[in-house]
Amino acid sequence: MNALAIDCAVSKIAVAAKKDSKSVKLVLDIGSRQSEKLLPAVDYVMSEMEMEAADLDYTVSTLGPGTFTGLRLGLSTLKALTLSHGKPLYGVPSLDAYRWPLKEEKSMVLSLITAKEDEYFCALYSSGKKILEDSDLTLEEILKLFTAEDSVTLCGPGAKDFFEQASQIPGCPEMKLVSPAPDCADSLFEIAEKMISENVSPMADYDGPVYVRKSEAEIVYESTHPAKDGQNQ
Question: Is the full-model pTM beyond 0.85?
Answer without folding.
Answer: yes
